[in-house]
Write a structure and sequence with these properties.
965 residues; alpha/beta; 23-stranded mixed β-sheet; 12-stranded parallel β-sheet
């Protein structure tokens, strides 16, 4: 019995030993995993505290974003979109059992750790939408199935051994800075289903070897510099349902082999240099939903075979060289929503039944050679919102059916041969915001009918045959552009036009209008261009025209106007172009503003005098009586005496405050000059020098350290900026600073003194308690952002217009703006000579103007560009340094696109979106409009600081209407 029990005991002992061994192995492994996770945590910044549970007192399987296997090993980490930053620690890829890592949509920077290739269990890795740099790590992860590194700043070439990732199903490297060719080895990933290399700088040809990747469902190679022809081998990828090769330099013909892609739903080849006709095999792709071959050099006719594409929803062939007729078969595609064939050489009629069986929302056939009438069926779907047919030879009347198409928003029928009258219902379409029917043969009275188009922003009826009185209203308070020129309108200009508070352009020239110019027009405070030429207007120019703050062009030529030119009209700073020729004006020409160098043709045909030599006018004769001259002389003498006394008082006070002080210590002789009388009583050289210790450091920069100081007397706080490069200090140091030290403005951080020895120097600035704008911007309300915008604009106007010589900021960025406790912005300036010294730092800033990078010259227009970027950031919450602008390339181009094509909700900062009540929406749109003017590519097109301030002040003070896109 004992002998039989001994082996049993030994087996039991061995079993217990192995259990004991594996238990402790597991504990050790778990401890190592925890240490790796904590090492990863230590390397990143977590401002929202998502990793607060990551500590040793909690089982890591319960940590935020962590998932574990049944054996309590880390299997996945998901921290996407958590506003984290810092560098990704290599420790993360030391987790032996990790299968999925998702760190997308954060702010991680630095390079991708090379240890990723050691993580053999990893199957899913998503590091997209970060700020990662460096190159793609070489090597492979044998089990990896999905790799997404898109929308970072990764550079270099795609590794030649990318094919070693043999099990990949998803590969997304789009939106980076990759260069070189697509490696042929990529074809070794035979199981790949999704391939995205778009938005890089890849060159060379598309490898024909891609034809071996039979599992591919999605190819996106757009927005590169790929050249050559489309490989016919692409036609062997029979599982493909999405092919996108847009914005490249592809040449040659579209291969007919693409007709073999029977599962293809999306075919995008636009913006290339493809030629030839569309292969007939393409029209056999019965599953096609979207076909876009626009912006190429394709030719030939569009065949009736298009009838086979019964699932087609979007059909784009615009900007090519297609000829022949529009195929009637298009009218038989039941799902067709968007049809754009503009800018070709198409002729004949628009298919009679187009729209009858379709689901049309957008139709653009403009700039062709089409003739005949506009079909009645275009809006049968009840969803058509964009109808663009301009620059053809269409004739007949505007179809009655369009008068009942209440979905219409944008209508452009100009430059055709349309005739007849407008239907009363056509003038009541509720959603139309853009209507252009100019350059036709339309006729009739438009004042006899009631206009009710509440969304209307742009109306152009120019160069038709309309007659009779002008209507008092168009049923919209949102009109921005009104062009009724070149018709036969008569009668007076309605006073009610003064109620068009959003009007920016008014053209009434080339009619038969009579009577006085209504003073009410001066209520249009946003009016930029006013053309009343070639009419029969009489009376005087309203003196209130000077009240229009942004009026830039004024044409009153060819009328019967009389009287003198109002002198205050010359004081309108925005006015740059004036034409008052061929009227009955008399007297002197204003000697200011746009009249200073006016062209002779713009004042001819009057009885005027004065002006510059360019005006061609005779000089005005002036008469002065002795009594009047004596009175003026006495007054001038008195004023000069008062000015001299005032100057003497100011000079004595400033001299007392700016007296040079000297102190000698172990570092040699120190000199200090203070420009503020209060500072001169409180701040000493020893006080400045003693403040430059480590405990007082505020920040460190390339050109010096900022210290916080406090005087012992009166405890006055100040900021000391060390000048590292003493060699950069010019010999006329004090002279240059004398001007800089005199600057005083509530929105500028004032220089109150400076200190210098042979070894270096310090600038002494007033202390502003607060944070940089970049630190607080995203948390600010719309009202607080308004205050910031107008405060910075005031500072720029002061620096550019009130200082002699003018001052420039240089790097006009949110880091240069300090916000005090009352939300008042203060610009931090560098002295003029330091702007030049810091130029390398300035041009590396995302806020510098494009011409400054090329010419290496900082001007007032450079500051205006930077201010425009700040305005865009205040509106959208997005920074120029963000990397999410995709095809638009920069925040400016993205903002232009959003402003012109998107609803306000799509681009406004979500923080302030909720307050879009009443006036705010319109204010936001007007400020964005100004921002786009400030960021114009051409520096001369940017407004000056005075105009910027006036515009912001006008926008924020006005009670505007709600904006509607």
């Amino acid at each position: 019995m004992a002998e039989r029990g001994a082996p049993t005991c030994r087996l039991l002992f061995m079993f217990m030993f192995f259990v004991f061994f594996f238990f402790f192995s597991s504990v050790m492994s778990s401890r190592e995993e925890m240490e790796l996770l904590l090492s990863f945590k230590a390397s990143i910044n977590d401002p929202l505290g998502f990793l607060s549970t990551w500590n040793s007192s909690v089982d890591f399987c319960n940590w935020y974003g962590i998932s574990c296997t049944n054996s309590s090993h880390v299997s996945s980490i998901d921290l996407s979109g958590k506003n984290m930053s810092g560098q990704i620690s290599p420790a993360l890829f030391g987790l032996l059992y990790i299968q999925a890592v998702n760190l997308s949509s954060n702010g991680f920077s630095g390079e991708i750790p090379g240890t990723i290739s050691l993580c053999s269990s990893l199957r899913y890795l998503n590091l997209s939408n970060n700020n990662l740099t460096g190159s793609i790590p070489r090597g492979s992860v044998s089990e990896l199935e999905a790799l997404d590194l898109s929308n970072n700043m990764i550079s270099g070439e795609i590794p030649a051994d990318i094919g070693l990732f043999s099990l990949l199903k998803v590969l997304d490297l789009g939106g980076n800075f990759l260069v070189g060719k697509i490696p042929n080895s990529i074809a070794n990933i035979t199981g790949l289903e999704f391939l995205t290399l778009a938005s890089n700088q890849l060159v060379g040809e598309i490898p024909p070897e891609l034809g071996r990747m039979k599992s591919l469902k999605w190819i996106y190679l757009g927005y590169n510099n790929i050249s050559g022809s489309i490989p016919m081998e692409i036609g062997e990828l029979t599982s493909l349902n999405h092919l996108d090769l847009v914005y490249n330099n592809l040449t040659g013909e579209i291969p007919s082999s693409l007709g073999n892609l029977t599962d293809l739903r999306f075919l995008f080849l636009y913006q290339n240099k493809l030629s030839g006709s569309i292969p007939s095999s393409i029209f056999g792709l019965e599953k096609l939903v979207s076909l876009d071959l626009s912006d190429n050099s394709l030719s030939g006719e569009i065949p009736e075979l298009v009838i086979q594409l019964q699932k087609l929803e979007i059909f784009h062939l615009f900007a090519n060289n297609f000829t022949g007729k529009i195929p009637r078969a298009l009218a038989s595609l039941p799902r067709l929503q968007i049809l754009q064939l503009w800018s070709n050489k198409l002729s004949g009629n628009i298919p009679k039944n187009l729209g009858k069986q379709n689901n049309l929302t957008v139709l653009d056939l403009s700039t062709n050679n089409l003739s005949g009438e506009i079909p009645e069926t275009l809006c049968n779907s009840g969803r058509l919102f964009k109808l663009i047919l301009f620059s053809n030879s269409l004739e007949g009347e505007v179809p009655e059916s369009l008068s009942h198409c209440r979905s219409l928003r944008r209508v452009r029928l100009q430059n055709n041969r349309l005739s007849g009258e407008l239907s009363p219902e056509f003038m009541k379409l509720p959603l139309v915001y853009f209507l252009d029917i100019s350059d036709n043969n339309l006729t009739g009275r438009i004042s006899d009918r009631s206009w009710d188009m509440p969304s209307l922003q742009m109306l152009n009826l120019a160069r038709n045959g309309f007659f009779g009185d002008l209507p008092p209203s168009f049923g919209s308070s949102k009109l921005e552009n009104l062009d009724l020129s070149g018709n036969q309108f008569s009668g007076a200009i309605p006073e009610s036009f003064g109620n068009l508070s959003e009007l920016m352009q008014l053209k009434l020239g080339g009619n038969m209008l009579s009577g006085d110019i209504p003073e009410e027009l001066s209520s249009c405070k946003k009016l930029v261009s006013l053309n009343l030429s070639n009419n029969q207007l009489s009376g005087h120019i309203p003196t209130t025209f000077s009240d229009m703050p942004v009026l830039g062009e004024l044409d009153l030529s060819q009328n019967q106007l009389s009287g003198k030119i109002p002198s205050n009209l010359g004081g309108v700073e925005s006015l740059v172009q004036v034409n008052i020729s061929n009227n009955h004006f008399h007297g002197s020409l204003p000697s200011t503003g746009a009249f200073l160098s006016i062209n002779s043709s713009s004042v001819a045909g009057n009885n005027l005098c004065g002006g510059d030599t360019t005006s061609g006018l005779p000089p005005c004769r002036r008469f002065k009586t002795p009594v009047w001259w004596f009175f003026v002389s006495c007054l001038l003498v008195v004023l000069m005496l008062l000015a001299l006394v005032s100057f003497a008082i100011i000079f004595i006070r400033r001299r007392a405050g700016s007296e040079l002080k000297r102190v000698e210590n172990e570092d040699g002789l120190w000199e200090m000059q203070l420009f503020d009388s209060k500072a001169s009583k409180s701040i000493t050289i020893n006080g400045v020098l003693s403040s430059t210790i480590e405990d007082n450091v505020i920040s460190r920069g390339r050109k010096g350290i900022l210290y916080k100081g406090k005087s012992k007397k009166e405890e006055m706080q100040f900021v000391v900026k060390e000048i590292n490069d003493s060699n950069s200090i010019s010999s006329n140091f004090w002279t240059e600073f004398a001007q800089f030290g005199k600057l005083r403005h509530p929105n500028v951080v004032n220089l109150i003194g400076l200190c210098r020895s042979q070894k270096g120097g310090y600038l002494i600035f007033e202390h502003i308690e607060g944070k940089n704008l970049s630190e607080v911007l995203r948390s600010l309300s719309w009202e607080r952002r308004q205050k910031i915008a107008i405060g910075i604009a005031k500072a720029l106007k002061f620096l550019h217009c009130n200082c002699s010589p003018c001052m420039v900021v240089g790097n006009m960025s949110p880091e240069k703006v300090i916000m005090d406790g009352k939300d008042e912005p203060h610009l931090r300036l560098s002295p003029p000579w330091m702007v030049c010294v810091d130029f390398k730092c300035i041009i590396s800033s995302a806020y510098v103007a494009p011409e400054a990078r090329e010419t290496k010259a900082i001007t007032e227009k450079s500051d205006i560009y930077g201010f425009g970027l700040i305005l865009i950031e205040l509106m959208t919450g997005k920074s120029p340094t963000d990397t999410e602008f995709g095809v638009h390339g920069s925040i400016v181009e993205w903002a232009r696109y959003c402003y012109s094509d998107c609803h306000l909700d799509m681009w406004i900062d979500p923080i302030i979106r909720a307050v879009q009540a009443s006036n705010n929406q319109n204010q936001m749109v007007e400020i964005m409009n100004l921002a786009l003017q400030c960021t114009a590519t051409d520096p001369t097109a940017r407004p000056c600081a005075t105009h910027v301030l006036k515009t912001i002040d006008s926008v924020l003070r006005s009670s505007s209407c709600i904006f509607s896109p």
